C-alpha cells in the first residue's frame, strides 16, 4: 500500500502519485471504455459501439508484458530448429501446441471480456445491480475502486502474469503428461464423466480456498480483500486479485483437478476455455442467456448464475457466502448459497428460498483450510503412484 507520507513532492508541488494518476487516467480514458462513467444514453448507441479495445487493456505496460510472455515461447522455438524439439516433453502435448494454447486462452479472454461488457452497457434491463448502485460519491471507477487501489491492482496484474507464466511452464517440464498428449484419447462417455468429475474436484478445491480467504482473517486482510474492492463487478474485474490469490487458486483448482482426474487433450482444451468464459461471466454484471457457459450448465442440480457471485461482491466483507467457482454444488451442500438479486434468471434454489439458510462450520476446531490439506495429501499420493 502506498502511504501518503511516503509520497515525495515534485518540483511544481504535485506528488509523484499525482503524476501517475494523470497518466493512468489518460491511458484509461483512451484505452479502456467506460472506466469512470456509464455511456451517454441520449446518443442511442448500438451494441457494437460499446466494444472496448480487443487488444489493449487499461494499462499499456501490462499489455506489453502479456505480449512478451506470450511471444517468449515462440521466440525460444524460433531461435534454433533443434531447440524446438528439445523443448518437447515426452507424454505431453508439444511445446508448440502449449504455446498456441496460452495464446488462444489470452485471445478468448480479451474477446469474451469485450463481448460481456458490450452486453452490460447495451442492455440496462439485464443488469444485476440497478444503474443507481453505480452512482458514486467519490472519484472511483465503475466497479468502486479509487486511484490508489487501481495502482495497487496494476502491480498485482504484473506479478499475476509472471507467476502464472512460471507455474504454467513449470508444470509442463516438471509433470510429464499434465498437459495431455494427443496419443491417449478417451471415449466420448469417458470424456463426459471425467469432465464432470474434474470440474467438481476443481470446484471443491476452489470452494475451500475461497472460503478460507474470507474466513481466515490474515488471508482476507492481506490477500482477498483486494479482489473485493470491486463492489459492482464487470468482467474486466475477473483476474484483478492479489497475485497470490490467482496463484493459489490455479494450484488447488485446475492443477489438483488435472492430477486427480486427468482430462484428455480435446477435453482439456474445452475445459480451460469453458472456465475462462465462466469466470468472466461471473463478474459480467448481467445474469441471463448471454452468459454462454452458465447457460450451458443450468441443467445441473444446484447450478448457479452470475448474479450469485455478483451478490458475493456487493457485500464486501459481509459477503461470507456463495464461494463456489463452478456448478454451485458445494455452496448448497455446505450451506453457504445466497440468491442475491436473482431478478429474471432465478434458479430452482433461488425460487424455493432454501438457499438463504446459512450454516456455520461443522465445529470450532474445523478450519476451512483442512479440506485443502486433505486434497493435497490425495494429490501427493497420486503423484507418487502411477501419474
Ligand atoms: Zn470472495
Ligand atoms: Zn469475484
Describe the structure.
With 387 residues, this protein is mainly alpha-helical. 53% of the residues lie in helices and 0% in strands. The protein contains 14 helices and no strands. The chain has helices spanning 16-31, 60-79, 81-86, 95-122, 147-174, 188-215, 217-222, 243-260, 265-282, 292-296, 306-314, 329-333, 348-352, 370-383. The protein is globular. It binds zinc ion (2 copies). One zinc ion binds next to helix 6.
- Which class of secondary structure composition applies to the elements? mainly alpha
List the secondary-structure elements in sequence, H or E: HHHHHHHHHHHHHH
Note the main sheet: none
Q: How much is the average pLDDT?
A: 82
Count of beta strands: 0
Amino acid at each position: 500500500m502506498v502511504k501518503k507520507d511516503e509520497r515525495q513532492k515534485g518540483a511544481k508541488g504535485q506528488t509523484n502519485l499525482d503524476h501517475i494518476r494523470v497518466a493512468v487516467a489518460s491511458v484509461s480514458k483512451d484505452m479502456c471504455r467506460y472506466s469512470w462513467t456509464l455511456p451517454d444514453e441520449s446518443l442511442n448507441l448500438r451494441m457494437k459501439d460499446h466494444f472496448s479495445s480487443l487488444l489493449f487493456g487499461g494499462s499499456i505496460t501490462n499489455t506489453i508484458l502479456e505480449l512478451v510472455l506470450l511471444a517468449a515461447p515462440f521466440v525460444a522455438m524460433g531461435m534454433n530448429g533443434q531447440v524446438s524439439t528439445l523443448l518437447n516433453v515426452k507424454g505431453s502435448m508439444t511445446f508448440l501446441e502449449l504455446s498456441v494454447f496460452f495464446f488462444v486462452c489470452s485471445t478468448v479472454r480479451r474477446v469474451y471480456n469485450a463481448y460481456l461488457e458490450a452486453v452490460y452497457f447495451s442492455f440496462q434491463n439485464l443488469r444485476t445491480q440497478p444503474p443507481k448502485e453505480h452512482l458514486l460519491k467519490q472519484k472511483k471507477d465503475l466497479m468502486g475502486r479509487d486511484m490508489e487501489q487501481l495502482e495497487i491492482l496494476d502491480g498485482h496484474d504484473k506479478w499475476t502474469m509472471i507467476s502464472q507464466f512460471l507455474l504454467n511452464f513449470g508444470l509442463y517440464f516438471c509433470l510429464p503428461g499434465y498437459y495431455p498428449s494427443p496419443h491417449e484419447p478417451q471415449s466420448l462417455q469417458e470424456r463426459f464423466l471425467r469432465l464432470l468429475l474434474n470440474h467438481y474436484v476443481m470446484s471443491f478445491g476452489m470452494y475451500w480456498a475461497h472460503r478460507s480467504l474470507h474466513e481466515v482473517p490474515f488471508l482476507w486482510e492481506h490477500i482477498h480483500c483486494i479482489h473485493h474492492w470491486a463492489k459492482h463487478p464487470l468482467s474486466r474485474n475477473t483476474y484483478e486479485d492479489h497475485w497470490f490469490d490467482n496463484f493459489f487458486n490455479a494450484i488447488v483448482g485446475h492443477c489438483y483437478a488435472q492430477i486427480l482426474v486427468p482430462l484428455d487433450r480435446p477435453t482439456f482444451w474445452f475445459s480451460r476455455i469453458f472456465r475462462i468464459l465462466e469466470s468472466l461471466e461471473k463478474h459480467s454484471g448481467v445474469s441471463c442467456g448471454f452468459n454462454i457457459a452458465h447457460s450451458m450448465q443450468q441443467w445441473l442440480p444446484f447450478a448457479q448464475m452470475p448474479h450469485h457471485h455478483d451478490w458475493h461482491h456487493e457485500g464486501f466483507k459481509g459477503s461470507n457466502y456463495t464461494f463456489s467457482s463452478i456448478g454451485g454444488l458445494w455452496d448448497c451442500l455446505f450451506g453457504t448459497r445466497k440468491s442475491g438479486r436473482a431478478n429474471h434468471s432465478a434458479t430452482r434454489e433461488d425460487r424455493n428460498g432454501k438457499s438463504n439458510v446459512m450454516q456455520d462450520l461443522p465445529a470450532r476446531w474445523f478450519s476451512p483450510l483442512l479440506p485443502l490439506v486433505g486434497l493435497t495429501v490425495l494429490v501427493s499420493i497420486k503423484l507418487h503412484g502411477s501419474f
